[in-house]
Amino acid sequence: MSNTQTPASAQATEEFVELPPGQVDPGLPKKKPALAHYLMVLPALLGFTLFIVVPAIQGAFYSFTNYAGYGDWHFIGFANYIAMFQDPNVGQAYTFTLIFAIVTTLLLNAIALFLAVLLNSKTKWPNLWKGIYFIPMVLSGLVVSYCFQYLMNQSIPKIITWGPLGEGILTNANWAWLGVVFVTLWASFPGTVIIYLAGLSSIGGEVYEAGELDGATAFGQFRHITLPLLGSFIVINTVLGLKNLLNAYDIIIGLTNGGPSGATTSIAMSITSTVASSDVAYGSANAMVFFVVTILLSVAQLGVVKLMGEKK
């Protein structure tokens, strides 16, 4: 009996090429977005344009005028920007805000990562501890700041009479910023912890089991497994943290209102106080410079993170 040949389609072998993640097969027909997709995006696009883009363009325009928020105005060129750079109060606000934002961002991520690893470990009553740690997230920033203002200026000096704590740390021009950092950390870490917990939950247990078989200690697992796999989550938290802290306002208002002697006045407070005093043009110039500084810091931050990733 002779062997029958199989059809050509069965003899031919099909080659399946696995494409990299995110890459689409060029042979597939491109699908155009449906009308419903545009209709769903349109409200958000209109809202962003009306409440973000248009006011930003107006602010940039008025920064070159003497507009007071009402009445007539005239072009004065870069006079507002020159006056702003010569204003020592504005310089002090930028110095405080940058130092405060950088220090708080570093401490916030270090503390939040430690707490996330602790909450993700095998501890008793994990849900109870998570509930306790997340209490600051449901409280208003002003409520938190008023409570801590009473504690730092009234209650603690009655118990501790040493140094700045004895006189009320928020009333000391040299140490008030540390009180602001402490309260901001307490109010901000729950959101950062949640992001780190999400990152830890994405790491499979078999990875740590393999590390234990290789003889890795707990610190070795944290250094060589947890930190590298949480790289993208660290980037998210540092970028969001620095952005939010540069715009610090409500907690500082409740704690010190920018005092003592303007030592804790943030850039946001400087801009709003200027606009409130009917000097919209000067405040707009300050806001435009602040916008540029924020963009430059964000780009530099992403560049540093990318460089660190390439070295790894």
Give structural notes.
This protein has helices spanning 8-11, 35-62, 79-85, 88-120, 126-133, 141-159, 163-167, 176-201, 205-213, 218-229, 231-246, 250-255, 267-276, 280-311. It is mainly α. α3 (79-85) crosses α14 (280-311) and α11 runs antiparallel to α14 (280-311).
Structural class: mainly alpha
Radius of gyration: 27 Å
State the major sheet. Answer: none
The number of helical elements comes to 14
Mean pLDDT: 85
Task: Encode the helix/strand succession as letters.
Answer: HHHHHHHHHHHHHH
Helix share, percent: 55-70%
Q: Which shape, going by the Cα principal axes?
A: globular
Strand content: under 5%
> Separation of termini?
64 Å
Low-confidence stretches: 1-6, 8-14
Write a concise synopsis of the structure shown.
Helices cover 69% and strands 0% of the residues. It has 14 helices and no strands.
List the helices and strands and how they pair.
Blueprint: H1 8-11, H2 35-62, H3 79-85, H4 88-120, H5 126-133, H6 141-159, H7 163-167, H8 176-201, H9 205-213, H10 218-229, H11 231-246, H12 250-255, H13 267-276, H14 280-311
